[in-house]
Specification:
Blueprint (H helix, E strand, L loop, with lengths): L19 E3 L6 E3 L19 H4 L10 H14 L10 H22 L1 H11 L15 H16 L3 H27 L3 H27 L2
Antiparallel strand pairs: 1-2
Helix pairs in contact: 2-3, 3-4, 4-7, 5-7, 6-7
The structure holds zinc ion.
Length: about 220
């Protein structure tokens, strides 16, 4: 057992167990992050569970895609509108609200860039507002400008395709580096890499758009 004063709280530290809430339908206690009341089985409001908890996953950048999908589709099936067709309006509305929160959680966690931004947010670092292209790190900024020039200089469709393949490899590498940074709980490094991943993604979109526009 390590001394807690020497160890910063890691980003994937288990959260305290959720407090029990009173079920809106029967009044009985039910876990705050439970979809259905454990007493009467009535669907509960989505509540404030984070995306990982909502999907029953450990808070981590590295996640098994197959596991994420399995949990998502299982929960989605349990919230299917057909199951609530004969229920009260309140239960139908709550099941829809749960489905919206579930889809939001899945979309965020399934995408490495969105997942990184979200993990940083959970760690108290709100970087990279949507649509903000500002890059503060000079090394990353220089690389971004050089790659932008390389794309502009690519003449033929084959050159653009080759460029896109290089960027795709860079993206894979960047995602691997992000995993290491989050594992070490190095949020500053993770924030830089997230910025890099964002512009790499933009670059590959732009190069694909150019490639297809040339036929
Ligand atoms: Zn109940």
């Amino acid at each position: 057992m390590q001394s807690p004063r020497l160890v910063p709280t890691p980003i994937d530290a288990p959260e305290p167990p959720p407090a029990a809430l009173a079920c809106w339908s029967c009044g009985g206690p039910t876990p705050a992050d439970s979809l259905f009341c454990v007493t009467c089985a009535a669907v509960q409001p989505p509540g404030a569970a984070d995306h990982f908890r909502r999907l029953g996953l450990q808070r981590s950048f590295e996640l098994e895609r197959a596991n994420l999908e399995r949990r998502y589709f299982d929960l989605q099936r349990r919230l299917h509108p057909d199951r609530f067709a004969t229920r009260t309006g309140r239960e139908r509305a709550l099941s829809q609200a749960q489905a919206v929160s579930l889809n939001d959680a899945y979309r965020t966690l399934a995408d490495p860039l969105a997942r990184a931004v979200y993990l940083l947010h959970l760690g108290g670092m709100d970087v990279l507002a949507e649509g903000c292209n500002q890059i503060a790190d000079p090394v990353i900024l220089m690389e971004a400008m050089e790659m932008r020039e390389a794309l502009a200089a690519a003449q033929s469709g084959a050159q653009v395709a080759l460029f896109a393949a290089t960027v795709a490899a860079d993206i894979e590498e960047c995602v691997g580096d992000l995993a290491v940074a989050f594992r070490k709980n190095d949020l500053d490094e993770a924030a830089k890499l997230t910025t890099r991943l964002r512009y790499l993604r933009k670059l590959i979109e732009d190069s694909r758009a150019r490639h297809s526009s040339r036929g």
